[in-house]
Write the structure tokens for this entry.
Amino acid sequence: MVNWQRPRAGGSSDGALLTRIVRRAFLRAAAGVVATAALPRAASARSFDLRLATATGVLYGTLDLPSRTPAPVVLIIPDSGPTDRNGNSGQIRGNTYELLASALTANSIAAARYDKRGIGESAAAMVAERDLRFETYVDDAAAWLRRLESDRRFSRIVVAGHSEGSLVGMIAVQRGPANGFVSLEGAGRPAPAILREQLKPKLPPGVYAQADSIIAQLEQGHTVARVPAELVPLFRPSVQPYLISWFRFDPAVEIAKVSVPVTIVQGTADVQVGMADAQALARADPAARLVIVDGMNHVLKHAPDTSSQAAIVRGYEDPALPIDPRVVDAVVALARQ
């Protein structure tokens, strides 16, 4: 039996591997952006601490600048769960977003990345879990876009959304200013389909049948009062409003609405989001560029060992592994388009 643990800020599940889109989507957050500001960062003359003030607290991020401006800027939208501005979450310590930002600045492109609500320096912006909605993340991303648009140091704005951040990003670019969108290992199917796919092999048949029934009711917009004990960590009443809001969005539908140029990046060694997802996105947006990166895992690094799922996942914990250069090339190409 899978040891289901409730996700928590700064931590991670210790049970069997689930996709992060499943196990880290249930964090508390709040919406309502009201103001923004930025302060210079003492550690580097070319890095700045970003602040985004909201109705419930301040979100914090980092802006990395190339040596010359104006320049294009890439807003990196993080994955689900307790993911910080560097791309780390619990045992996942690969520094993915920090490495991507460094690679972009080396190519004369700026990068903005941020701690999600309830995570890192943005911890105080978190409210009760029952108030979380998927749109909260979209509102935050759109607000960051408006912040970047107001800065004369940037000539173009590109959104790079990673995993769940892909869905967040493709909706945010419909609501905020952007010149391009990159999906990095983004799902191409609605969350209920992915939840069912991930849960079925990990639960006893009877428990899975109960989970399937709960998912079906949430898809219809109905909360479920009685949840079996084994499923409370995933479907507890306080998280159900978030799930209902998340289930409404289909990535294939949303990417078809994006009016700016799109690049879809997918690694062949990703054990969380597969080629079927990338192909679904590409079918929905035939004008998009599809970049398939052989041997790349979910955290945008070339997997040193692809002999098993466990071996691939070990690559998540190594900050010494560089970002796959083909990812950098794809993002740079769109930013310069």
